[in-house]
Amino acid sequence: xxxxxxxxxxxxxxxxxxxxxxxxxxxxxxxxxxxxxxxxxxxxxxxxxxxxxxxxxxxxxxxxxxxxxxxxxxxxxxxxxxxxxxxxxxxxxxxxxxxxxxxxxxxxxxxxxxxxxxxxxxxxxxxxxxxxxxxxxxxxxxxxxxxxxxxxxxxxxxxxxxxxxxxxxxxxxxxxxxxxxxxxxxxxxxxxxxxxxxxxxxxxxxxxxxxxxxxxxxxxxxxxxxxxxxxxxxxxxxxxxxxxxxxxxxxxxxxxxxxxxxxxxxxxxxxxxxxxxxxxxxxxxxxxxxxxxxxx
Amino acid sequence: xxxxxxxxxxxxxxxxxxxxxxxxxxxxxxxxxxxxxxxxxxxxxxxxxxxxxxxxxxxxxxxxxxxxxxxxxxxxxxxxxxxxxxxxxxxxxxxxxxxxxxxxxxxxxxxxxxxxxxxxxxxxxxxxxxxxxxxxxxxxxxxxxxxxxxxxxxxxxxxxxxxxxxxxxxxxxxxxxxxxxxxxxxxxxxxxxxxxxxxxxxxxxxxxxxxxxxxxxxxxxxxxxxxxxxxxxxxxxxxxxxxxxxxxxxxxxxxxxxxxxxxxxxxxxxxxxxxxxxxxxxxxxxxxxxxxxxxxxxxxxxxxxxxxxxxxxxxxxxxxxxxxxxxxxxxxxxxxxxxxxxxxxxxxxxxxxxxxxxxxxxxxxxxxxxxxxxxxxxxxxxxxxxxxxxxxxxxxxxxxxxxxxxxxxxxxxxxxxxxxx
Amino acid sequence: xxxxxxxxxxxxxxxxxxxxxxxxxxxxxxxxxxxxxxxxxxxxxxxxxxxxxxxxxxxxxxxxxxxxxxxxxxxxxxxxxxxxxxxxxxxxxxxxxxxxxxxxxxxxxxxxxxxxxxxxxxxxxxxxxxxxxxxxxxxxxxxxxxxxxxxxxxxxxxxxxxxxxxxxxxxxxxxxxxxxxxxxxxxxxxxxxxxxxxxxxxxxxxxxxxxxxxxxxxxxxxxxxxxxxxxxxxxxxxxxxxxxxxxxxxxxxxxxxxxxxxxxxxxxxxxxxxxxxxxxxxxxxxxxxxxxx
Lengths: 296, 421, 293
Prior knowledge:
The complex is a heterotrimer.
Chain A: H1 8-15, H2 21-49, H3 71-111, H4 117-126, H5 136-148, H6 158-182, H7 186-194, H8 199-207, H9 212-228, H10 231-236, H11 245-251, H12 260-290
Helix pairs in contact in A: 2-12, 3-6, 3-9, 3-11, 3-12, 4-6, 6-9, 7-8, 9-12, 11-12
Chain B: H1 3-25, E1 31-36, H2 41-57, E2 62-67, H3 74-85, E3 92-96, H4 99-106, E4 111-112, H5 115-120, H6 123-126, H7 129-134, E5 136-137, E6 140-141, E7 143-145, E8 149-150, E9 153-157, H8 158-163, H9 172-184, E10 188-191, H10 198-219, H11 230-243, H12 255-263, E11 267-272, H13 275-282, E12 291-295, E13 302-306, E14 308-313, H14 319-330, H15 332-342, H16 358-369, E15 371-374, H17 384-400, H18 403-416
Parallel strand pairs in B: 1-2, 1-3, 10-11, 13-15
Antiparallel strand pairs in B: 3-14, 4-14, 5-6, 7-14, 8-13, 9-11, 9-12
Helix pairs in contact in B: 2-15, 10-11, 10-17, 11-18, 17-18
Chain C: H1 2-37, H2 54-61, H3 63-94, H4 101-109, H5 116-126, H6 132-139, H7 156-181, H8 185-193, H9 198-209, H10 211-226, H11 230-235, H12 247-256, H13 261-291
């Protein structure tokens, strides 16, 4: 397996026919065309986010703002910043817990198979595929019921939302870790066991040190999906002081007057953390995929 | 990932989580949770004005503004219904008066009557009888209307009408003449944005009223007027004809973008409720200067009511504060604080006219004089089951223009909703 | 011996919370939904008396639901085909030692970081027939490319597909690129030594090796598309004559606006069934290969 960045020496062989000049030009034209296609919506968001409410209108969508106005961004920031923090205190614990839970489950299902574990795995996986809007009512009823027997309320709180995301994160995180761990040779595990390592010893000394690529994939995946999730957030947290940013973003639009410029600015602000995660960790995401984290 | 990194990360996570938990449990003793879909613009300002009036009278109560946005409250209703089903009502919530209140919440036993409150506060004397009836069931009052919007208004770009020497149409026959002239000059006669479906239904509702008159229109919701009859047939035909004069991208727009077409000079007329006036004001457009208004064609003398009301859910967690909230909502002071910002008129007839703009003043005059009829599209005339199907049927009609199929489907929906036999 | 079985006990004990949680939150709730779908709960007050298949039959007769099923199938097929095709194309191009590969990769991948709601709202602007890309086409002299997009019932659904492809094709690109980079060099060398053209190398050596990647991508994208909700809800809603309506939107409106809880539950069960048709063979396949050596 080669490194991701593919040093030139290694790649020469594959590219030799394509080195014809016009061939390269076509490649770049296609790539640039697609890049423009992907960037087009961002342009619209930025340009209209910089306009004032009076100026923003459908017919002048591509025109740059007549005067640079940061008002929309300020307004969006004012309204969104408390919810931004809520999102952070939702996403960080939920992502970390569900990653570790997935890692543990994956480890058990890959390296500690027991009778029936081959059946349990697909059963766990199936949870990934349910349409979430269909289980909202039983979910709310269950959270309320369970909250009575616990020291913390589950319904209406970030804690409850964290729990929900951890539970519905189990299938995907388990899948990624199990597939990744399946590619770690059993010999390594056996050798550690010979040396007297038990369940936790093997996990700590053999599995965990090798887990970084899978963790990156899982963390990115969970981080973005939890950050962007709307339906659970809006149904489970009713107190605006507890609501994550997706709900607040939606609330920037009233039922009767929508300030598109503020919405666009807000959308950009709300997307910043996930964009940062992708730009900073994108390389490792690919590396994690390469290492087999998301391969069937 | 090594242990050195993992452990601190986990500890941080736990701390963050617990801090969130703690903040939650430190809530104040006296609370009031108000649920609505007023989250932005004038609506939110109006709501905040109401909150300030409340705060002034009851300074020790912490108000929780549980507002959820969504096109005309769609997402908000989902959240509210999930909460009510889960047995977790807010202290009071926004609901359209009429069928939406009575069919969904009152008949099903979720609400507590507030008749004695309405009597001691003197509301029954200052709120028109038709409107009180919309919030009553079996002689008991269940909610207090906070405001009144008018559903049947024709808005027009004054400049376009002046330049072409046109008179705004009072009937649909006039409308088609004017529309033909405008079309000849390359101006879109009527702007429509029906992406959310209800906007097309809204236009049709006004046509139904124009064709059937208030009596016939009201009969639709009680089974007295037949959906398969000639009246509805004519209304659908008029609707189909009107659709020939709308902008071709109507399915891509929502109502405010349709209103924007008037501002941009791209369309001459728009039929919509008077929240459009609030939009024009926000965009710096002035009544009787930039735009004109009159009752939707053929509906002079009728006032289609769209009203937001607040009631008292059973098991409201803070009942006493909720009752005080209703007192504020129904008071003259509360309504005068709320409505000018919201862009609606008071449900009470004794509000100070000077606090309202030109358009709203004329609406107040009509409200006191006209026959009041409930809006179907905005939840007042028929149960929500029917309202949902009504929107669906008209959405199909807009594309297919099949009058017979639409009448049959409307009749079936009417039977399913148990409004007709 | 004792040691091993103790460890095994620990393993099972640690797995147990997840099993219980999924048992309640997934299977318990599905059971609840199935139960409601067979009841008479079509007003706001719960009425759990048995209704048999009434709700399902009502759906099958509904014009809207027929449109929903048709739209879902069209959406899923075109979305999958386009995402896989574009993803593969971009991955192969990026695999040609291009300058600025990292930049291109980030540009292709970033839409994944954005929520479906924001994507929906933005593309609703872009594909608005009187502005957006149409305006752009006019300005650069490509007027013939103009379209009525999602206001034209016959092609509306493809406008939604376009937005979905924008969001997810970067993901297939990443999967394929990872797959391409995982192909051992020796294999390619061997093929070239045997005189295969570059095209043949791709067609007969590399593509077959990418099958597992394609399968994973189909599963991930397929289930997203079968239960798609946010994107459609934010972008077009039901569309003219339900041309972009999907079961997720119908279910949401029927349940929470129309108060027809049993009918909504029946829609959910049918959605679940559609997803199961896609997923169960895959799970079965996974299980079989696991059970092997």
